[in-house]
Fold this sequence. Notes:
Shape: elongated
Number of strands: 0
Number of helices: 6
Distance between the termini: 63 Å
Helix content: 55-70%
Oligomer: single chain
Amino acid sequence: xxxxxxxxxxGGTLYETDVVAWAEAQVEALRAGRxxxxxxxxxxxxxxDVSRREADALESxxxxxxxxxxxxxxxxxxxxxxxxxxxxxxxxxxxxxxxxSPSLRPRLPALLEDAYPAARIRAGVETGLPEETFPxxxxxxxxxxxxxxxxxx
Length: 153
């Protein structure tokens, strides 16, 4: 079945009505060498989305890391094993993403710059401290964020 065939129920393309079935059909066509059945436009979009999703996941892990490092530094009376566990898991996930997609490493500074404002906002909300308590720019280096370091202030 060609992937651009209209779906009987809704009148949309298979891509529009069931992206999983569409993806499976694309894989089958690729593996069988039936290149004429490929939905090249949507395939290109999906491949581009892989890069965006990986970068978004890395940014999310950085946000989580920085959030908890800010809380650790600025709210020491509430430090917990849960915070420490969250930091360790986020570092593990960050390292795994960078191991699986090393081309993301040069993007770390920009991703951190994008992640920091949300981490700062969340730190204020979660600690109850004024947002101004937290520096306007990220006070941690990438080595500190991704290493085993914890702020002691």
